[in-house]
Design brief:
Blueprint lengths: L6 H4 L24 H4 L20 E3 L3 E3 L4 H6 L6 H8 L43 E2 L2 E2 L27 H4 L7 H4 L7 H5 L9 E6 L14 E3 L5 E4 L3 E6 L5 E5 L3 E3 L12 E3 L1 E3 L9 E15 L4 E2 L13 H4 L2 H12 L8 E10 L39 H32 L1
Parallel strand pairs: 5-13, 11-15
Antiparallel strand pairs: 1-2, 3-4, 5-8, 6-7, 7-8, 9-13, 10-12, 13-14, 13-15
């Protein structure tokens, strides 16, 4: 699932004005939508299917939701710094709804309490997004690509001009009172302990099976079933979904870079799974630390002949091949792959996919941090799947254990023998 061929629906968030096909000119300054980030009135909105443009006159979306015309004169007179609300217009609602995609970002961050996020607490520190996502010439820190421009990563107090994307930039590398906790910081990311759960405010999507989409009632009306959270458990347009709240993260070694599967990459399923992205890192990599992720699972279309993921065309009119217009996966695949300029064999099947999303937001107070015993335990350790490191109580080295018990028993025996000897000697003296 991608922007390609679904242009005008997806580009209501993705960059610029008039992003309606792959000929969009990213070097044209007149195509940059400055207002979407710098509006302070809260009235500037994109129309969901208009290729990135706001509504210049009152319009209906899907025949139901009414969008009023944006007062551009008012908005232009009220431009200012970006806010959590302006950033959240896209990031809180990514994936198609509030909290759907990320799991650590949703609309509660617009005006959060301290229990939700100690940094963005609206009655406390009240950080904006750019307090940590430092920005120079609109180059925003925090994106994770295969080879990102790293920039400076020195310690930088908020008054400085350095990059501040890492916790250590403000908190330093020895932030705890107790030295034993500080010994963890070289191999365990701060957020590993300080994000005990994600989707703590709103439910997030954890399973999305596109293969089941396209079912209707006998009179061809869409089927929509809701779960206990009021979220769609099944939707004719989108298939079967699962949602969760207060979920334990997945943990992986991570050096800050991600490897992504491109549409041209040939991929064989591993144990029936294709990884759409993967955190890079290992226990041998000195730049890697144990890091928390939301692991999203789903079923998506795959070309078993060319061994590539399929980008289907979802959004469009009848006759365009769009799935939401004709509900034919092969037509949607043909149209989508043609738009992407990638061959399609004509064969289609669905494969299970994994996608990792790094967690970095919604930091609760330190009293709610992960307890030592949640990782350092023999059964049910949070880090049970982490390899390449010895963890006391989680791991066992049999020879060492036997040696330790032998020395313990031996010490006890020596103490008992010594004690009895003293008793005997004392009694003889009497």
């Amino acid at each position: 699932m991608a922007v390609t061929s679904n242009w005008c629906r997806c580009t209501s968030c993705h960059a610029g004005y008039g992003f309606r096909d792959n000929n969009f000119d990213f070097n044209n300054d007149e195509k940059i939508d400055c207002l979407v980030c710098h509006d302070t009135t809260g009235t500037y909105k994109k129309f969901p299917t208009d290729c990135g443009y706001p509504p210049y006159k009152e319009k209906l979306f899907a025949g139901k939701k009414r969008f009023k015309a944006v007062n551009l004169k008012l908005v232009a007179q009220k431009v200012g710094h970006s806010t959590r609300e302006s950033c959240g217009k896209c990031h809180f609602y990514s994936g198609g709804g509030d909290g759907v995609k990320r799991g650590d970002m949703d609309s509660t961050l617009t005006n959060p309490s301290k229990d939700i996020d100690v940094h963005m607490d609206s009655k406390g520190l009240n950080f904006s997004c750019t307090k940590c996502h430092t920005t120079f010439s609109h180059d925003i820190d925090g994106r994770k690509y295969r080879r990102p421009p790293e920039g400076k990563r020195h310690l930088a107090l908020p008054k400085d001009d350095g990059h501040r994307i890492r916790c250590e930039s403000c908190h330093g590398t020895f932030p705890h009172k107790y030295s034993k906790l500080n010994h963890h910081t070289d191999r365990v990311a701060c957020v590993t302990c300080h994000i005990p759960a994600y989707a703590r405010a709103m439910p997030t999507n954890i399973w999305w099976d596109w293969s089941s989409a396209g079912k209707f009632t006998p009179d061809h009306k869409p089927i929509i079933k809701k779960d206990k959270f009021g979220k769609p458990a099944y939707h004719s347009k989108k298939g079967t979904m699962k949602w969760g709240k207060n979920l334990m993260p997945a943990y992986e070694w991570f050096n800050g870079k991600m490897e992504y599967t491109l549409v041209t990459d040939k991929k064989e399923p591993q144990n029936g799974i294709i990884y759409l992205n993967r955190p890079l890192g290992s226990s041998e990599d000195p730049d890697s630390r144990i890091y928390p992720f939301k692991l999203h699972r789903g079923k998506q279309p795959y070309d078993p002949i060319n061994k590539t993921m399929i980008i289907p065309k979802l959004f469009g009119k009848k006759g365009s091949g769009a799935f939401w217009a004709e509900y034919d996966w092969k037509k949607a695949a043909q149209a989508g792959m043609k738009a992407a300029g990638v061959p399609f064999s004509g064969e289609l099947q669905f494969v299970e996919t994994y996608y990792y999303l790094p967690l970095a937001h919604m930091i609760p107070p330190k009293k709610d941090a992960v307890a030592c015993s949640e990782c350092h335990r023999s059964n049910g350790s949070r880090l049970a799947k982490i390899k390449g490191v010895y963890m006391p109580r989680r791991d066992r080295f049999e020879l060492l254990d036997k040696t330790g018990w032998f020395l313990t028993v031996l010490s006890l025996a020596v103490v008992l023998i010594h004690g009895f000897a003293r008793i005997l000697i004392t009694s003889k003296d009497k």
